[in-house]
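Researcher: Structure prediction, please.
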Amino acid sequence: SHKSSKREWKPLEDHSCTDVPWLLLFILFCVGMGFICGFSIATGAAARLLSGYDSYGNICGQKNVKVEGIINSGLDLTHKKNICFLFFLHQSFFFFFLSTGSSLCSYELQPSEYTTDPRAAKLCPKYPVPESAPIPFFHRCAPVNISCYAKFAEALITFVSDSSVLHRLISGVMTSKEIIMGLCLLSLVLSMILMVIIRYISRVLVWILTILVILGSLGGTGVLWWLYAKQRISASAVETQIAKDNLQALLIYAISATVFTVILFLIMLIMRKRVALTIALFHVAGKVFIHLPLLVFQPFWTFFVLILFWTYWITVLLFLGTTGSPVPNEEGFVEFRMVGPLKYMWWYHVVGLIWISEFILACQQMTVAGAVVTYYFTREKRNLPFTPILASVNRLVCYHLGTVAKGSFIITLVKIPRMILMYIHTQLKGKENACARCMLKACICCLWCLEKCLTYLNQNAYTATAINSTNFCTSAKDAFVILVENALRVAAINTVGDFMLFLGKVLIVCSTGLAGIMLLNYQRDYTIWVLPLIIVCLFAFLVAHCFLSIYEMVVDVLFLCFAIDTKYNDGSPGREFYMDKVLMEFVENSRKSMKEAGRGGGAEGRELKPMVGADEE
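Model: Predicted structure follows.
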């Protein structure tokens, strides 16, 4: 009933903890991640990784425990912090030992036996020993000469040896570093400005989109019919099977393009009014960023937290690579292997990477949703909290971490099978038959589509949770019902809106690139500015994508709030709208249009009733 529906939606009135069992499960999972880190440190993996160890399991800089079956294990290397080849060695190993004190041969061979013992051919490295340099903080040395990495850098070596282009490109970057930094700052400023002014140019962008679609569809259809007519005239003179097949193919293409164009025009005709809603939402989104300027910096905090977590994850991954019990191998050296259930810690660690990364991204979505919901459902904007972003973060931490954990886990459940199938497809490339390859790609594609749909539904579920403080499943169900009821509007926002944001990204990249060309042009006589320009354009695109993705998120949250507002309110006393004046004008114009068309009842009759007592700025 309407009363029950109204009781279910109480924006910002009730706050209660949601999905607490999932929060406990997530905390237990994080404890497991901490156990993996602690285990790897406790078993000496951290010491082996940081200090380095030799082929017999001896860790540099400390006393070592004897490994059963390995003669040269258990040595005292307290005074040997690292084993490092510091000189390009052409002299004998014995003279190298006398001059540096470093033993380059195996431990069982004494320095005095380097030149006399026949085992030296096997126990000593082959000449010449390449020059090396120490790596800071890791007690290891790496060859200075890049040719030592020929197995995995052969293409780069060939490129460098054949020409000096690489050196000139790098010198161009170093010479233009001030300009590059200035242009990167320019792209940052342009992105922030665009987020504010896009509400004023959204109508122009929609017209650009409409004109391009019309010209593209009509032009493509016209060209196909022109080619068909031309081919038909020429085919009448040359009666060959190939000419007939080409003519038939062109006819099919032309008819298909014509049908597509007609359907496209009908869709545009049906959705033309709903495009106005997209423009209105973009306009209100611009106001949101004026009232909530900290939203602009949300991608930076999320990126910073992700970098910290990924750094931790990679560090523990390196620890896991050296953890385990020492085991002699066939060559008489020591390998560290995990046995029993502990060997599955790798899989646990990989799942942790996906789940926690998705959890961090979901926290960003919930934070943005909470801040925008606060803005939308606060009638007097002057009564907004001092920092709605921090208020949203506070609600997230106090009430809704369990909902975020559950939503991110669902994405993880879809992402892991897709990654496994992608790994199988990579391993079987060139070995599987065509049918198996097609099935694998189809499964990967389906899982990718499912992941995108669930991500979009999750985002709207977080918005519903921020509005009504309900658990994840209830919020997802409510959001899904609202989206289905407004399917055409959703389609308009996700097509027209995404294209508008794409044009915004193109505008920022082109503006930054044009400024780069004009500035770097002054250095054209002594600098290759192709690479600096590429760097600047890539950075501009990434910055624009980060900023405009937040803008897109705000538009989606505003749309769900608007749909709920128009569904349960009609502007009458006691049921006043929460929406902005721009959205009210859209509703009023739609109501007038439907009255003029004599369709005042219809599917949208509830949300187009006269508005009375709306309190907006």
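Model: The radius of gyration is 33 Å.
Researcher: Thanks, that helps.
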